[in-house]
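Good morning C.,

I know you're traveling, so I'll keep this short. The sequence:
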Amino acid sequence: MDRLQGKTALITGGGAGLGRAMALRFVAEGANVVIGDVSEAGLRETTELIGRLGAEDAVLARRLDVTSEADCQSAVQAAVERWGKLDILCANAGIGGAGGKVGPIAALELADWERVLAVNLTGVFLSVKHAFRAMQPHGGAILIMASVAGLHGAPTLGAYGPSKAAVIQLMQTVALEGARYGIRANALCPIWTQTAMVDEFVNAFSGPAEQVRQRLVAAIPLGRMGDPLDVANAALYLVSDEAAFITGVALPVDGGHMASR
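The tokens, ready to paste straight into the viewer:
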């Protein structure tokens, strides 16, 4: 299990959900990881889980608010100071809606719109900016967490969907700018996955939670929601040397959903 042996990764939003799954997967493949999150409790839980793998020396946890440029720069510096370089960035931190809100565009408050874009778009930009600078001397892999909601219209997700569409275009720009430095950039576009964020969406939609879940699963040909490990496995491939000739790609991890559109 050495596909990332000797690599150092920074994972934003590493305190839960997809970020936690990626951290565990990467460490199992030999990586050192810096995990950043606004939830210190979540960081402790992820760190403890990595410790159970016998890899407590392979993780560094930092409180990280991706809307703060100082925090993003400091997290990159911490990786370089601890392990000498940064090879991988997973710009994963994101929110579904301010306060878990969903609803039509006409009912969307400006403050909610601005909060979602601050985390999901500006936060990705700041993370990528400083990781890119650290990778320029030697190359690296940047992975941005987008969504199938960034590939097509998504009613009631009027801030979330546009934020994810924007980071896909940002990823493509980074891929083109990074090629001369050996920096690859790609994005993952998951569909509904079993995470706390999706639980927030389910609770925000009208109707009993189980009926809402059934409606969401009905749009997935493989007949189930994604598992965080499904996303982590795809992430592992894209940041590994096995994907050395893949850059500028937005890969759906969606159980066949996009094939029907």
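Safe travels,
E.
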